[in-house]
Amino acid sequence: PTDACAWIAPNAPTNLVGTAAGNAVTLQWVDHSLVELGYRIYRDNVEIAMVGPNVMAFTEVLQSPAGTRHVYEVQPYVKNVNVPTTRSNQVQVAITIVIAPPSSPAVKFGP
Fold first, then answer.
1. Phi, psi (5° rounding) for residue 70?
2. What would the pLDDT profile of 48-77 be if each residue is shown by its tens digit?
3. What are the Cα distances from residue 71, in Å, to 16, 39, 43?
4. φ and ψ at residue 89, rounded to 5 degrees
5. Do residues 63 and 81 touch, judged by C-beta distance below 8 A?
């Protein structure tokens, strides 16, 4: 994007979907903007990551117990922080496995 694009509000991404495979969450969305510098990823209304322009997927691995639910959104950003941008739809994803602590080594007694 050029500097002139810094004043154009990017279109919000749509069709955000989230899937969990164990403790990994993958988000996918449809990019409708030609002027974004990238996307901010939000989990439970807190920014957790940024990805580049035209990226339409993100994966994170969590250390959350099975059944933990998180709400995700994606928001485009541009160079000019004064240009308002709109977040995607929200999607809720539940972690599907329990993260177990490492097992203790086996102890053998006797010969």
1. -130, 145
2. 999 999 999 999 998 888 889 999 999 999
3. 11, 16, 6
4. -65, 160
5. no
Residue 49 β-bridge partners: 41
* pTM of the full structure: 0.80
Amino acid occupying residue 96: T
User: Cβ(68)–Cβ(95) under 8 Å?
Assistant: yes
Which residue is associated with the tokens 């995607």?
A: 88
Query: In this structure, what are the phi and psi dihedrals at residue 98, rounded to the nearest 5 degrees?
Result: -90, 135
Paired strand residues for 93 = 70
DSSP per residue over 36-65, as a string?
Answer: -SEEEEEETTEEEEEE-TT--EEEEE----
Report the residue count for the chain: 111
